[in-house]
Amino acid sequence: MSGRVIRVVLVDDQEIVRAGIGRILGPPDGFEVVAECGDGQEAVAAVAATAPDVVLMDIRMPRVDGLEATALIRQVDDPPPVLVLTTFDEDRVLWGAIEAGVSGFLLKDASAEDLIAATRAVAAGGAWFDPSVAPRVLEAYRDRVAPANRERQRLDQLTERENAVLRLMARGAANQEIGETLFVSEATVKSHVGSIFAKLGVRDRAAAIVFAFDHGIVRAGDRDSSPSPHDPVATDHDAPTRGGEQV
Q1: pLDDT per residue as tens, the chain (247 positions)
Q2: Residue 50: strand pairing partners
Q3: What is the pLDDT of residue 240?
Q4: Given CA atoms 35, 40, 45, 48 in this order, what sign does their dihedral have?
Q5: Taken in order 161, 164, 170, 171, is the CA torsion positive or negative?
Q6: What is the model's pLDDT at position 97?
Q7: Which of 147, 160, 176, 194 has an alpha carbon within 20 to 30 A of 111's alpha carbon?
Q8: For 6-124, which CATH superfamily applies?
Q9: What is the C-alpha to C-alpha distance for residues 68 and 213, in angstroms, rounded to an integer?
Q10: Whose CA is closest to 207, among 170, 242, 153, 159?
Q11: What string of DSSP letters covers 55-74?
Q12: Cβ neighbours of residue 2 closer than 8 Å, sequence gap 6 or more
C-alpha cells in the first residue's frame, strides 16, 4: 500500500463513531474514506461500488450485522480484507468473526495510532489482533479447533523458509514486507503462504497466525529481533509484535 492512498469503507451504525474514525483516517495519513455505511447491507453494496482496499466493520448493527456482511464480502471476486472494530463482549461473536474471515480485531477504545497502524497492516495483507483480544482468540481456538488439529506433525512439515514466512506473518508483515526481509520475490512468498495453509490445514492468514501463537511459534508481547534471511528458522520460538500487538 506504500505510495498510494488507502481507500477505506467505514461501517458502523453510530454516526458519531464513523465521524470520529473518519477524522483519524484522513488524507494526511494516507487514507480516503470512500463510503460510510450504517449497516452490513449497505457495506456489501459499498464494497461492490467502490472496490476499497480495506473495510472497517462494526459487529452489532441492524438488518445485516457485521459477521454476515463480512461473510458476504469474502465471497466476492478479489474481496478486500476486513478489520473488525468492536467491544468483543461475547466469545461466540469473536469466534464468529474468525469464521467469517476477518483479518483483524481492534477495540473501539484503541488509540488513534493503533487504528492507523492496524488499518495499514490489514490493507497491506497483514493481520492485527488487539492485545486485549489476542488471548481470547487463542482461547476460542483451543476450545473449538485445537482438539481436532493440534498435531505437532503439521508444523514439522514446514520447511525452514516456510517457518520464517509464518513467523513474519504472525508479526503482521504483508507479503511484500516478507519478501524484502527474506530477499525473495512477492510471488515466491505467496507460494510459501499457500503451502503453509495447506500443511497446517487452515484456510486463511488469520487462522495460520492463531495456529502459530497456539503452538508456540510466536508469543504475544515478545520483543526479539526479526528472523534473519540467513537464519530463517530463528531457532528460538519467540517473535516480536508491533504497535498494538500486531500479529
Answers
A1: 456 899 999 999 999 999 999 999 999 999 999 999 999 999 999 999 999 999 999 998 888 898 999 999 998 888 999 999 887 656 777 778 888 889 988 888 889 999 999 999 999 988 888 877 777 777 766 666 555 455 566 777 899 999 999 999 988 899 999 999 999 999 999 999 999 999 888 888 888 888 888 777 776 654 344 444 433 333 233 333 333 433 3
A2: none
A3: 31
A4: positive
A5: negative
A6: 83
A7: 176
A8: Response regulator (3.40.50.2300)
A9: 27
A10: 170
A11: EEE-SS-SSS-HHHHHHHHT
A12: none
Is the Cβ–Cβ distance between 210 and 127 less than 8 Å?
no
Per-domain residue ranges for the chain?
A: 6-124, 151-247
Contacts of 156 (CB under 8 A, 6+ apart): none
Q: How many other CB atoms are found less than 10 A from the CB of residue 71?
A: 19
| Residue type, position 41, single letter | Q
| HSE, side-chain direction, 13 A CA sphere, residue 204 | 16
DSSP 53: S
| pLDDT computed for residue 15 by the predictor | 92
Residue where the block lists cell 480495506: 54
Residue 39, all three cell numbers: 449497516
Which of 177, 12, 165, 4 is CA-nearest to residue 87? 12
Q: What pLDDT, on the 0 to 100 scale, is given for residue 89?
A: 59
Grid cell of 133 as nine digits: 483480544
pTM to 2 decimal places: 0.63
Q: Contact 89/127 with Cβ under 8 angstroms? A: no
Question: Percent helix, strand, coil in the chain (nearest 5)?
Answer: 45, 10, 40
Q: Does domain 151-247 have CATH number 1.10.10.10?
A: yes
